[in-house]
Design a protein that fits this description.
The complex is a heterodimer of chains A (138) and B (687). With 138 residues, chain A is mainly beta. Chain A is built from two helices and ten strands. Chain A has helices spanning 5-9, 43-51, and strands at residues 14-17, 26-31, 34-40, 74-78, 89-92, 97-99, 106-107, 113-115, 127-131, 134-137. In chain A, strand 6 (97-99) and strand 7 (106-107) form a beta hairpin. Chain B has 687 residues and is mostly helical. Chain B is 55% helix and 3% strand. Classes of the chains: A mainly beta (138), B mainly alpha (687).
């Protein structure tokens, strides 16, 4: 009952062009049936994410570890709440990040869990920068 | 099933069969001469009611499966077309969907009855555990069945519930992938759920056979909790129990029919009339009412794994009940303390159900934790403790003695009590739906409301005109075919008029022999063409918000009625939240934005729209559509007419449903009455 071959094949990597995404905006793309949020973060959002002491987080992880070096303004996360799989809403909640409408989990501008029942940060999908304005997810 | 039968058929042919397969003897000993305690009350009829419901669900389910398509792109549509086009499809669907709720309602009564009268105690432990297994199978079946219509709640319910398994350490993720058959809930998930939803009811039926077998070995418990000793304590199953169960089933069917014919969507969620969309989460994901207490337990535990364990142990703990409660006295009738704690426990379950439907914030979270503690405390602290400290009242020596002491208390009002209790129980668990910052729409007087409601033909025809001239430039009506305009219970056009109406439209067809697509005039069999080729085009043309298809809009929108209005609604049959909302939104546009509300660029202020910022500009203005029948050409009249029309598009067979409901009720009331007097006659000498 594991996924069949066509389902696996449809999950091949995709390329996303980042040039139309302005600062402060984010886009949602689908990969393997999952929504992926790509946020072009503002300076303020980056600073906020880096100012918080890592040890105080429920799932400690630095912002640097969640983005690609040299592309600090781009946050790429799988937009599925780690609690029970709802889709959080971007730019909502108290932490300038994501808010899950189902059970009230709140994530910060680095996609890290800050408040609510979710146990872990929003996962970062495997991706790399193909060029400065293009990423490949998968 | 209880030992060899002395049954001997008189017909030689039957004797020949009986010698080779003693099936008639089995039926005879299990359901005819089988001794049943004389003092059983009406709570014992729920066993028969449950068997009836299981049969009903399997029967309607098998027929529904003949018309259903288990594919992510087609499932929602196939359910809608089933309701619209299949003969009595609406009846089958309502019977099956409401039947699930009724099945769970009956099983909860059945379980609580067992709890109250100590039916799980020695020698009925295995019987009880088989019951818990049936209940677990029912929960799995009900959940997978709810996924099949592939609406928003189906999809997101499936996502949330399958994700529960990801909490299991190490193997969780692989289990979830196995359930999904992919990387997320999708078409493979729907396919396997359909297969399992078809399989599990037959497993349930198998375990029910074991359950009844165990019952007939141990014998039935009874309200006094003393085992039958002499023949005077029992009566033969037929005709006594048969006729009493028959009366119980008839009364239960009255409640069932109330939902099928008058309140089919009362227990459902409006969001499930929106097709599944993996990119949009509904603001409140709420499971069906029968899972709400467990959902509340899940949410009140802040740790994910602990929450999942808590939820499952809330059910598994029932298996250990025979050993947790060691009291010798079975029936709570003779246990003054246990009786009180039992009713507190019932209240805890109902309140947990209520909390399960509330958003997880503030006081609800704290109340949920307290009640979760109470739930487990009942099993782990109260029951073990009571069996040590409680002094039960003396139990009668025998059943016949208990009956003599009772002095014939009348149980005639049982039907009324059942209906009222049912309404309260189901009603309390019904959720208060999302109402974020929206003003409650004002009520209207609709021609289609109430048990004898019918569509105002003039309003339907005018509403169609408003749709065609105004709404149709942005909104589709894709489940309605032109032929429907001539259907009974609709706008009452003739077939020729419908054909003329259709020929005004250009329908894309093809490919022709040259391989090209072409346009031709519409025929009656065609469906209303949608204004945009796909959702993305609709989104792009309308500032990012796709105008929803209107076929189901009056059923896909709702608003919270709040406590206690939703209880009143059950009796008054009020179910026009959708039409009230649609009519209110059409009239709720205001030029002046009130202070404190900011409306983003490209949006408009609407008093009744949740959040107030709507992308649709004010669609209607006075005099915009010309009416030929002299009705006032005002926005209020337009809104009312088009809403009536859209109620018809959402529920084209409503008139047939309500008409049949009336006939069914007349029949059931007479039938139940006859059953009652027959039962009285049969039992005359036994009480």
């Amino acid at each position: 009952m594991n996924p069949d071959a066509s389902t696996i094949a449809a999950g091949a990597p995709i390329e996303v062009d980042l040039s139309p995404v302005a600062e402060g905006q984010d886009i949602k793309v689908f990969w393997r049936g999952k929504p992926i949020y790509i946020s072009h973060r503002t300076k303020k959002q980056i600073d906020e994410a880096r100012a918080v002491p890592v040890a105080s987080l429920p799932d400690p992880q630095t912002d640097e570890a969640r983005v690609k070096a040299g592309h600090d303004q781009w946050l790429v996360v799988i937009g599925i709440c780690t609690h029970l799989g709802c889709i959080p809403i971007a730019h909502e909640g108290n932490y300038d990040g994501f808010f899950c409408p189902c059970h009230g989990s709140q994530y910060d501008s680095s996609g890290r869990i800050r408040q609510g029942p979710a146990p872990a940060n929003l996962p970062v999908p495997p991706y790399q920068f193909v060029s400065d304005t293009k990423i490949q997810i998968g | 099933m209880s030992g060899p039968s002395e049954f001997k058929p008189s017909n030689p042919a039957l004797q020949w069969i009986e010698r080779r397969l003693p099936i008639m003897g089995l039926v005879h000993s299990s359901f005819v001469v089988y001794p049943t305690p004389r003092n059983l009350n009406y709570w014992w009829t729920f066993g028969a009611i449950l068997s009836f419901m299981l049969g009903m669900q399997i029967l309607t389910g098998v027929i529904l499966a003949m018309h259903y398509t288990p594919h992510a792109d087609l499932a929602f549509k196939s359910v809608e077309l089933l309701v619209r086009d299949v003969n009595y499809g609406w009846l089958l669907r309502n019977m099956h969907a409401c039947g699930a709720s009724m099945f769970f309602f009956a099983v909860y009564v059945h379980m609580l009855r067992g709890l109250y009268y100590g039916s799980y105690k020695e020698p009925r432990e295995v019987l009880w555990i088989l019951g818990v297994i049936i209940y677990l199978l029912m929960m799995a079946t009900g959940f997978m069945g709810y996924v099949l219509p592939w609406g928003q709640m189906s999809f997101w319910g499936a996502t949330v519930i399958t994700n529960l398994f990801s909490a299991i350490p190490y193997v969780g993720e692989s289990i979830v992938t196995l359930l999904w058959g992919g990387f997320s809930v999708g078409n493979p998930t729907l396919n396997r759920f359909f297969s399992l939803h078809y399989l599990l009811p037959f497993l349930i039926a198998g375990v029910v056979v074991l359950h009844v077998w165990a019952l007939h070995v141990a014998g039935q418990n009874n309200p006094d909790g003393v085992e039958p000793k002499t023949e005077k304590d029992t009566v033969p199953f037929t005709p006594h129990a048969t006729i009493k169960d028959g009366f119980g089933v008839a009364c239960f069917m009255l409640l069932y029919a109330w939902f099928i014919f008058y309140m089919p969507n009362y227990l459902g969620d409006a969001d499930n009339y929106i097709p599944a969309n993996p990119g949009v989460t509904p603001p409140h994901i709420v499971p069906e009412w029968y899972y709400l207490p467990f959902y509340a337990i899940l949410r009140s535990i802040p740790n994910k794994l602990a929450g999942v364990i808590g939820m499952f142990s809330a059910i598994i703990i029932l298996c250990f009940l025979p050993w947790l409660d060691a009291a010798k006295t079975k029936s709570s009738k003779y246990r003054p303390l246990a009786k009180q704690f039992f009713w507190i426990f019932v209240a805890v379950c109902i309140l947990l159900g209520y909390l399960g439907a509330q958003p997880p914030e503030g006081i609800y979270v704290i109340a949920g934790r307290v009640l979760t503690f109470c739930y487990f405390a009942y099993f782990l602290i109260v029951l073990p403790l009571l069996s040590r400290i409680e002094t039960p009242r003396p139990v009668p020596n025998s059943i016949s003695e208990a009956i003599l002491a009772k002095g014939g208390k009348a149980a005639a009002s049982i039907a009324v009590v059942l209906v009222a209790a049912g309404a309260l129980f189901l009603g309390t668990l019904q959720d208060a739906r999302a109402e974020e910052g929206g003003t409650k729409p004002p009520g209207n007087k609709w021609s289609f409301a109430g048990p004898f409601g019918h569509y105002d033909r003039g309003a339907l025809q005018r509403g169609l005109k408003v749709y065609k001239e105004v709404c149709s430039s942005c909104h589709g009506l894709s489940y309605i075919a032109f032929r429907n305009l001539a259907d009974a219970g609709g706008p009452s056009y003739s077939v020729a008029q419908a054909a003329a109406f259709a020929s005004d439209y250009k329908i894309k067809d093809g490919p022709n022999d040259a391989g090209d697509m072409f346009e031709r005039p519409g025929r009656v069999a065609d469906y209303f063409p949608s204004p945009f080729p796909n959702e993305q085009a609709a989104r792009a043309a309308n500032g990012g918000a796709a105008p929803p298809d209107l076929s189901l809009i009056t059923k896909a929108r709702s608003y919270g009625r709040g406590f206690p209005m939703f209880l009143v609604d059950f009796f008054s049959q009020y179910q026009e939240q959708g039409p009230d909302y649609v009519a209110a939104v059409l009239q709720g546009f205001e030029e002046k934005v009130p202070e404190g509300v900011t409306i983003p660029e490209g949006s408009y202020y609407n008093k009744y729209f949740p959040g107030h910022a709507i992308k649709m500009p004010k669609p209607l203005s006075d005099g915009q559509v010309t009416y030929d029948d002299g009705s006032p050409a005002t926005v209020a009249q337009y809104a009312k007419d088009v809403t009536t029309f859209l109620m018809w598009t959402a529920e084209p067979h409503m008139e047939a449903r309500k008409r049949m409901g009336f006939q069914v009720f007349i029949f059931l009331i007479i039938f139940a009455g006859l059953m009652y007097f027959t039962k009285k006659k049969v039992w005359a000498s036994s009480h």
